[in-house]
Specification:
It is a multi-pass membrane protein. It is found in: Cell membrane. The chain folds into 2 domains: 51 residues, no CATH class; 208 residues, MetI-like fold (Orthogonal Bundle), CATH 1.10.3720. The protein is 72% helix and 0% strand. It contains 13 helices and no strands. α4 packs antiparallel against α10. The longest helix is centred in the N-terminal third of the chain and has 32 residues.
């Protein structure tokens, strides 16, 4: 009984956090189910209407195209980042060579580089190579700015893997690539899931590079395309809420199905005591 009473404050805190985190999503969904007049009559009422017209309207306004663009560029960028980061992290964490620490610090220093300081050089470079106003213009910046944190997470996680496993594999005749592919990579799944979720959420919501490097509706990603729901003198708030509800579903689904591995990956990548 005493142990149960001690947990009461934790349960209360969990409920409070649930309310704070769940309220915005419930309000967004409730507003998406209203029309304009119902929203202005009762903006703070919950689920007083169940009108699905807004969801039909947002697809007619091109939401499906924005969805496809975001999914394509995000999945491609995250896949390349996971591939490069896993290969780069292996020698940084498992091999001893002269400039090991220096290279690691160079990679990590990328996390301290302000994105806004790179906008003009990236814009000029993209324009010069002929990729401006194409979806592929986003691929380079997305990969470059996702690699530092990805390499950091994977390197820290690999350092926790016992050396004895690697030595045993080498005694059986494995090369460095064999050790990486057969021993390290299977054990890297929690950290890779952490990298996947972190970068997917970040790139799915990325706005500033899309705003600078893309101007035509055909190449717009979802965050940039949501501006279509803002008129010159008014905003279709229920329509915007419907679009935001649909835009948040992929992230919610991926995180709900992967949250356990995310927590394990973050714990595994912690610094050793």
């Amino acid at each position: 009984m005493t142990a149960t009473l001690k947990r009461v404050p934790l349960y209360v805190l969990a409920v409070v956090l649930l309310v704070f985190t769940g309220f915005p999503f419930l309000y967004m969904l409730s507003t998406a189910l209203k029309n304009q007049s119902e929203f202005f009559e009762a903006p703070f009422s919950f689920f007083t209407s169940f009108n699905l017209e807004n969801f039909t309207t947002v697809f007619q306004m091109g939401l499906s195209r924005y969805f496809f663009n975001s999914i394509l560029i995000t999945v491609l960028a995250v896949g390349i980042v996971m591939f490069i980061a896993s290969l780069a992290s292996y020698p940084l964490s498992r091999m001893k060579f002269k400039f090991n620490r220096v290279l690691f610090l160079i990679f990590i220093s990328g996390m301290m580089l302000p994105i806004h300081a790179t906008l003009i050089p990236i814009f000029k470079l993209t324009e010069n190579i002929g990729l401006y106003d194409t979806l592929w213009a986003l691929l380079g910046p997305y990969i470059a700015f996702s690699l530092p944190i990805s390499i950091f997470i994977l390197t820290q996680f690999m350092q926790e893997i016992p050396k004895s496993l690697e030595e045993a594999a080498k005694m059986d005749g494995c090369t460095h690539f064999g050790v990486f592919w057969r021993v390290i990579l299977p054990m890297l799944t929690p950290a890779l899931m952490t990298v996947l979720i972190y970068n997917f959420i970040h790139l799915w919501n990325e706005f500033i590079f899309a705003l600078v490097l893309i101007s035509s509706p055909e190449s717009m990603t979802l965050p940039l395309g949501l501006q279509d729901f803002r008129g010159e003198f008014s905003v279709n708030i229920p329509g915007l809420m419907a679009a935001l509800t649909l835009a948040s579903l992929p992230i919610l689904m991926i995180y709900l199905f992967s949250q356990e591995k995310v927590v394990k990956g973050l714990a595994g990548g912690a610094v050793k005591e």
